[in-house]
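To: structure desk
From: M.T.
Subject: fold request, one chain
Message: Could you run this one when you get a chance? Sequence is below, nothing fancy, just the single chain.
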Amino acid sequence: MRFFGNGSTSRGLSNVLISDILFGGKPREILRHGSSGKITNVTSTPLMKKIEDVLRRPFGLGEAQVYGIIRLFRDTFSIVSPERDPSVVTADPDDNRILEAASAAGADDIISGDTHLPDLAEWNGIPVLTPDTFLQKFLSA
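Reply: Done. Structure tokens follow.
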């Protein structure tokens, strides 16, 4: 199982997902692999709420577009309900939501463009990878 991570609230939570939708590139490629069933992208209900909140910011998206994006994520992601509340990332406590979702999912990888999570390198035996590093690993497997 793969876990599709995110970024910090100060830059907009779920920056990998937001980058995917708004700008494309490596995050969009990861999402395509998830949509095709080659990997399993996982998120949690609290993270989905944050994603929706961020998409409603002034990016020029209409209500129908925001709804469509959220529906796409709900249709193509496994959504977990974390029971753990780790307090690992003190510089940005919202990043702990990523760790709790990864733990609940039994994730193989945490993918993040955030500055705090990749500094961990790994958490509870789960590698924390940038989108580029994840794709290199995934495509070479």
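Reply (cont.): The CA atoms of residues 35 and 122 lie 26 Å apart. Let me know if you need anything else for the meeting.
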